[in-house]
Design a protein that fits this description.
CATH architecture: 3-Layer(aba) Sandwich
Distance between the termini: 106 Å
CATH topology: Protocatechuate 4,5-dioxygenase, Chain B
Number of helices: 12
Order of helices and strands: HHEHEHEHEHHEHEEHEHEEHEHE
Largest sheet: 10 strands, mixed
Shape: globular
Number of domains: 1
Oligomer: single chain
Helix content: 40-55%
CATH superfamily: LigB-like
Number of strands: 12
Strand content: 15-25%
Length: 370
């Protein structure tokens, strides 16, 4: 009897051990599982050197720019614009007059999808990129997204856009506009849209679909272009020099002057005056003023955001209000001409050098209702 009892006890112990052994891997696996990181409440800042995220520093910058400003630009009817996204110490004189004149309480921002970002996110083509961050960084407080962002997601053809927070986290072309935008309009709301590479016919197609949606939103909400809603396009201009492997006119002062003259002619021909699709399309074809080539070879980083944003803004406003847009150049310059603003110890710096071997142009253009 004792032997039977001992055997039963031994079998029980062995069974318990086997059960515990079977559970151990599952428990270990459960303990090592790491939950997916939660979306930050504020989209992280990408560039805390070239752009300003401190209110006191921003005031010093704006006060200095105001003291140097000798021109004024009308606010009435300003419904769209092209803004640079270079460092504030380089391009501050171009940001200032534009954002001082812009007064809409919500803004759609068409940003670049730079090559390094495209590489990281598997190079999407022919599509817009939206985000789902609860808010974006500002210089005064976090910036809330406009209800338009979710309105677009719910109504725009699903093949025309994707949602990718990582893409927006990596890209600096939209965040560059936010400190100036919020400083002059503290309660502004934004709809950030990155524009991926696409040919002109795709731009026409998607901008038309987007225009239907945004014009519908404007009509539902009773919004007027310029007063209530505006459209910003982010772009720097030419990236010239051996550092960019881009020196079609050679090196030195003469090459710099030639490249600047070309930039100004392209702006005067395609960005100023009345907007229409055929004119915008011309910008996507002409490279270096010599021949017509594929516009993907241009060194304007807004080679997609500029034509798409202009098409979208023109179509939206025409559908919503039956009005057109006329472009006016506010200012054009480049890093070699500007150098850096003489502001020290305010938390701002530069993220790249400037010289005849490495310079970037930029421009601000305002578009007024007509």
């Amino acid at each position: 009897m004792k032997n039977w009892t001992a055997a039963i006890m031994i079998l029980g112990i062995l069974g318990l051990a086997a059960g515990l052994s079977a559970q151990a891997p599952a428990q270990a696996q459960a303990q090592t599982q790491i939950p997916a990181p939660a979306t930050p409440s504020v989209r992280p800042v990408k560039d805390d050197v070239g752009f300003c995220w401190n209110a006191a520093s921003m005031k010093i910058l704006v006060d200095y720019l105001a003291s140097q400003e000798k021109e004024s630009f009308p606010t009435e009817g300003l419904a769209a614009a092209i803004s640079p996204h270079d460092d504030y110490l380089y391009a501050g004189r171009l940001y200032y007059p534009l954002f001082k004149a812009l007064r809409a309480r919500e803004v759609v921002i068409f940003g670049v999808t730079h090559g390094a970002v495209r590489k990281e996110i598997k190079d999407p083509q022919g599509i817009l990129i939206l985000d789902e961050y609860p808010s974006w960084p500002g210089v005064l407080k976090p910036i809330a997204p406009s209800p338009l962002r979710e309105y677009i997601k719910a109504r725009l053809d699903k093949t025309a856009f994707m949602v990718n927070n990582r893409a927006h986290e990596l890209e600096h072309s939209i965040e560059a506009l936010l400190p100036f935008l919020q400083y002059f309009n503290p309660d502004v709301k934004i709809t950030p849209i990155m524009v991926a590479p696409m040919p002109f016919d795709k731009m026409e197609e998607i901008s038309g679909k987007l225009a239907d949606v945004v014009a519908g939103y404007m009509k539902e909400k009773g919004l007027k272009a310029g007063r209530d809603i505006a459209f910003l396009i982010s772009s720097d201009g030419n990236h010239y020099g051996v550092d960019f492997n881009n020196s079609p006119f050679g090196q030195g002062e003469k090459a710099w002057e030639t490249a600047l003259a070309l930039d100004k002619r392209l702006i005067g021909t395609y960005l100023e005056g009345g907007l229409e699709a055929a004119k915008i399309q011309g910008l996507t074809k002409e490279i270096w003023g010599v021949t017509y080539l594929d516009y993907r070879n241009t060194y304007w980083c807004g080679k997609y955001s500029v034509p798409f944003g202009l098409l979208a803004a023109e179509k939206i406003i025409r559908k919503a209000e039956g009005k057109g847009l006329t472009g006016k150049l506010f200012r054009y310059s480049d890093t070699y001409s500007e150098g850096a603003l003489p502001l020290k110890k305010i938390g701002l710096g530069t993220t790249a050098p400037f010289s005849l071997r490495h310079w970037v142009s930029f421009f601000s253009v305002g578009y007024y209702l007509n």
